[in-house]
Design brief:
Chains A, B, C, D, E, F: It holds the Pfam family Arginase. The structure is a homohexamer of 268-residue chains. Chain A has 268 residues and is of the alpha/beta class. In chain A, 31% of the residues lie in helices and 18% in strands. The first copy, chain A, has one domain: Arginase, Chain A, CATH 3.40.800. In chain A, helix 7 links the parallel strand 9 and strand 10. The complex binds manganese (II) ion (12 copies).
Amino acid sequence: MFPGAVAEREAADYVIVGAPLDVSTTFQPGTRFGPDRLRQFARTFDDYDPHTDAHFSSLDVHDHGDVHAWDNAAEYLDYLEGVVTDVEWDDAVPLLLGGEHTVTIAAIRALDPDVFVCLDAHLDLREAYDGNELSHSTVAQHALDVADEAIILGARTGSEDEWQRAREDDVTIVPPEDVDGWIPPESLAREDVYLSVDIDAADPAYAPGTGTLEPFGVTSREMRDVVRTIAPHSVGFDVVEVNDRDDGQAATLGAKLLREFVFAHATQ
Amino acid sequence: MFPGAVAEREAADYVIVGAPLDVSTTFQPGTRFGPDRLRQFARTFDDYDPHTDAHFSSLDVHDHGDVHAWDNAAEYLDYLEGVVTDVEWDDAVPLLLGGEHTVTIAAIRALDPDVFVCLDAHLDLREAYDGNELSHSTVAQHALDVADEAIILGARTGSEDEWQRAREDDVTIVPPEDVDGWIPPESLAREDVYLSVDIDAADPAYAPGTGTLEPFGVTSREMRDVVRTIAPHSVGFDVVEVNDRDDGQAATLGAKLLREFVFAHATQ
Amino acid sequence: MFPGAVAEREAADYVIVGAPLDVSTTFQPGTRFGPDRLRQFARTFDDYDPHTDAHFSSLDVHDHGDVHAWDNAAEYLDYLEGVVTDVEWDDAVPLLLGGEHTVTIAAIRALDPDVFVCLDAHLDLREAYDGNELSHSTVAQHALDVADEAIILGARTGSEDEWQRAREDDVTIVPPEDVDGWIPPESLAREDVYLSVDIDAADPAYAPGTGTLEPFGVTSREMRDVVRTIAPHSVGFDVVEVNDRDDGQAATLGAKLLREFVFAHATQ
Amino acid sequence: MFPGAVAEREAADYVIVGAPLDVSTTFQPGTRFGPDRLRQFARTFDDYDPHTDAHFSSLDVHDHGDVHAWDNAAEYLDYLEGVVTDVEWDDAVPLLLGGEHTVTIAAIRALDPDVFVCLDAHLDLREAYDGNELSHSTVAQHALDVADEAIILGARTGSEDEWQRAREDDVTIVPPEDVDGWIPPESLAREDVYLSVDIDAADPAYAPGTGTLEPFGVTSREMRDVVRTIAPHSVGFDVVEVNDRDDGQAATLGAKLLREFVFAHATQ
Amino acid sequence: MFPGAVAEREAADYVIVGAPLDVSTTFQPGTRFGPDRLRQFARTFDDYDPHTDAHFSSLDVHDHGDVHAWDNAAEYLDYLEGVVTDVEWDDAVPLLLGGEHTVTIAAIRALDPDVFVCLDAHLDLREAYDGNELSHSTVAQHALDVADEAIILGARTGSEDEWQRAREDDVTIVPPEDVDGWIPPESLAREDVYLSVDIDAADPAYAPGTGTLEPFGVTSREMRDVVRTIAPHSVGFDVVEVNDRDDGQAATLGAKLLREFVFAHATQ
Amino acid sequence: MFPGAVAEREAADYVIVGAPLDVSTTFQPGTRFGPDRLRQFARTFDDYDPHTDAHFSSLDVHDHGDVHAWDNAAEYLDYLEGVVTDVEWDDAVPLLLGGEHTVTIAAIRALDPDVFVCLDAHLDLREAYDGNELSHSTVAQHALDVADEAIILGARTGSEDEWQRAREDDVTIVPPEDVDGWIPPESLAREDVYLSVDIDAADPAYAPGTGTLEPFGVTSREMRDVVRTIAPHSVGFDVVEVNDRDDGQAATLGAKLLREFVFAHATQ
Ligand SMILES: [Mn+2]
Ligand SMILES: [Mn+2]
Ligand SMILES: [Mn+2]
Ligand SMILES: [Mn+2]
Ligand SMILES: [Mn+2]
Ligand SMILES: [Mn+2]
Ligand SMILES: [Mn+2]
Ligand SMILES: [Mn+2]
Ligand SMILES: [Mn+2]
Ligand SMILES: [Mn+2]
Ligand SMILES: [Mn+2]
Ligand SMILES: [Mn+2]
């Protein structure tokens, strides 16, 4: 159980769902251990948050446990979409623990947001990768099947086609250098937003335990500020691409950002 | 390049093929780094082998490099089968570096052996795993589509169905306790054999860097003796399921067993 | 949850209790992560056991979760004793996951066995260590406050006083060299036995992830055979001193021995 | 021996004392290896410091070695207080190498400073933790039994009670965002200050090897500047909560900050 | 092969040469694994670079492989100098992958630049270290035997003699605090520059996998900006002192900086 | 200090000398950390030895500390030879902690034994390696410059020339399979013997933390029995080639064997 997620399912305002999918990771695998790592390194945090004057354990967070993953990503996403839909029908906000970024597709399909906001080193705007249309590198593309707009913060790499796609009107790229002090468009306040945190948005110094490390990234505080800014407008959240190949940095940061999301969302 | 594999392809009697497939690993992923690890830890070995009075670098071994893997196992196995077939047509013996055990299926299909001999903790006699008919746990079952007989040494775990399947006439199980001093059936000398080494046959003390650790296994010397016994009758060989999650034990053992195979095969 | 421990508490014949106490570890700390590691590395095992022709998930094992530890060992042992007593009153066999060896004291006090059988590199017969009467090195001494007899298998080190204590009639030491093929006294069949597995009984090759490594130990198969022999006569079991400072060897072995206990006990 | 700490005890102006206490660590244990790690990673530094134009080995630093820790924190602190008192009576400045933060209590009691300045992610203002009044999370509270004032830099988490306590007049909190360029109150120049560096003040990117990682922390340069500013007014110093669970980052930073303290203090 | 270095030698504009020398490393050895690590962690990068609108695989980079190192540094440098000279004669730019910093000496001797620009925590201006005139800590000194001028960015430590040497006219030191926004002297545009990246210039948060960690260093972005600025004027490049003792941070950063060099040089 | 080595130098019967030379290691470096690791993992042992009924701390062992190593192996060996000679002149038995195997040469030269007994995976009978006559792989050859005879137990690899050299009368090879129960020639009792333990004699399962792992080795108990057999006739001892690249297995085994040597020698 995620520390402090003590609410019963019926009473929950937030439902944590572990989604340890790990089939399309390109370089270093291990995101299947992401949900476990995130829960483990969250033990270190105080229950109380001075920024919002709230206790995490009082915010009615429930931990659903993990949705056991198998090899067929398409089937898995279908099933996971159902789990997330159930959460939404219960009027709770789903909080996914990845697993590879692909799991975000299930949440987007279930929640049907207007805007997809994402912290990521990568554009994830591919049509497919090595022929796989459900690769982690297609997430933003899939999100745009559902959402009207995508905002990708911290993005610094992609294929030439992805960068071309990113120049279209429905995509906004905020490079790492511009994340500090970034202000979202005013319209965002009137939209349903889904917020996805690919931990590799961070510079590898802050989150080495991820599949594809990309230098020149965002700092942990910049990620926190984005989460605090976007959370109040969000209908769902995830933190993905954390693996077990570091000394806890990635999991600690990811778990903390999940808590920041809940504090900011609950006390808006 | 595998150390000592200095032959040109045309002149080669043995061709090493890296097959870093890593999609169906059940527990700990990382077999995609297997070929690299095996080559790296093989640097530590002397070229000369006192047991056979031969130099590895004189045995005409060529390293083909890796066959880059992608997510679709079925397509990958088709492609890999072609690569192995090419090796056979050149009258060379293919030596695969896994990658997950699934890659063995490609080699079996290409080489069409009479007998499948395997060192493995697992029976690998499933029809499918989580719906996946190309899971690493189906290898022996696939082998029996081609071969007349399977001999699995060191096997100590499987599903109830697998154990039932193992009781049929075409399967011989040699439990870990009986591997020491095991003598193959005489008929083996008249057959084409394929020898597959799943490194998890070893007790985890000898090879912790693998996906599914299973205690009470075989010692490194027992594995060596099986390789020396079977190699002279073999038309192909692989070592699979080595990952990068230990301090070099699994890769060192795997690379050494590959060399034992070549020495025993070449000097028979 | 320990994989396969799917029974409800009321229906359980076996109850797993995590006891992550980690205050008196002498050298390398980390046993607080023992229960997590044991559960994690148990995922790798097949449900079915060919030795007993049984499925683990059919043997009515329940996982109680962890009894959160705090700094005061005396108070913690009192509390834990209550938890174990509850299990016994429900006619179930408690299976503790340490945590340091000290947690065994709570189980012994709750279960009041006649004989204490222990796999351990250490005698654990101290009166106190650095003034601490509840050090992990006093466990066998505490056990003898309750039990009439202690049998310590694999023991190879201790203080001079401990070795002198070990020469008394109520203690039997089976050195590592004699564990293979060891036959328990016939009387054992008529007694209530408690079986405790300190993972450091194993040679460090088999279980490097423990607090105090002691060479020249027992092999994994020898430990298995002891567990299979003693389990049918046992009223309780634990596996302790596993930490997270290796590549999974210690946890894999410990989790497997717990399963061996349940299979052997349930199918006697 | 800490590299460069070549002075004899009698001639020493600074005395390093290892204090490897490791009993109340909340999450990841291992601070018992802190003194060893700090000494080991200090080998990498040049003797000469360009900032102060001084050689560390000329500043009369002596390494007392470690005060072997045992389980009873209260007794240990008493003993350690004696060791630190001896250092003070010899007119030398004590430099503690933790061990958990609790060891600071002994130094404070021995040195009786007016002001307690601390770099820490945590307020450490608890009365007790899990009933333990000598937990590492009570250090600042204990310091205020002796000192008139506490200044905690980099603090970003604590219980609600701790934050309430922090609002009283005798406590100053400098959040991580305000540490850069922080100027101490003028009055500090006229006071006896004790400076304690809990390495978790740093962002986990800079010091992952610590018990409780807390994101959004201070940079290494900001910590250095605080040490340089406070050192000239200090009667004692410590660096605590370094463990062996990273690749040397925490120990390297901690050892460097100790040297910065000595250079700044000696050349004021 | 370095990912994307697909050019044949004859057609190459850039030639990567691995130089895994690892004999004089002062503290933590392992730079012999540097070339392998750099190639491995470079797999994670997209081929396309949005900053220069170029594909790495189109820039005619060839990977020569490694020049196997042996114990005699003097002989090795002679041999390596020949290899680099061959590259220059082929009108290609050599890109060395260290190995210890000493290998830079061979490149400097082969290329005879006017200016030596170096990112390094250390001055490397010693005459010798422990009597060794070919220690990694003498590199800048050797460079000045050839070049007229040395600019060392990020330097923060050295012996008193080195700092004195650094005050002479032919050496410019840019301390870490001044690297951000640093503008090279105009004259640089008219000179042949050699650019050497000792990965320990970075703060240990960004590159823990190196021999001698030195806190208070440069950020990854600052290093990138230096590389982009200097590359257009450069006749050669290296990245050195990366080892295998971290979770990929150092190798990822080093490999990325090599790519930044090629992109900036090729598209100037 | 090696735990229990509490004697003053003048009163010592045994003198431990750390010799962290690490220049010619062929594959994985890190033996420079060997003495530290051996001392650290020796903390786990009880002072008392039941086999000889003796306390280690009563056997007058002194720890001289380390002889700081530098790059020039020839000079270092000269210096180290002097240190060992001093020990012998004080009528004490030197116990070296390597460092690479090369350091044994210094001890042999100082002690002038009749017989060189060595546990090693390698013959170490080269004249030179990559031109280096002081490589770790030449140790037995150098020993035979001084001693009349060499006995190498556990040897299983070497060059063809080394195996040919090994066939001469003054060399006895005991392959790993024959170490169990090996009985030394009677004549040994009348000779001065030097006993050298290269930790790679052990199978990698027992000692993965070494430079060149070689499968099919000796067990820890077999090594112990050799040490106990040879120690009474020995004038010097070393344990070498331990590095820091495992989870403590190699250092624990090495430190234990040193203690076995002292117990067996002192109580003969
Ligand atoms: Mn992504
Ligand atoms: Mn990404
Ligand atoms: Mn298999
Ligand atoms: Mn298997
Ligand atoms: Mn015990
Ligand atoms: Mn024990
Ligand atoms: Mn603190
Ligand atoms: Mn703290
Ligand atoms: Mn340098
Ligand atoms: Mn440097
Ligand atoms: Mn040797
Ligand atoms: Mn050797």
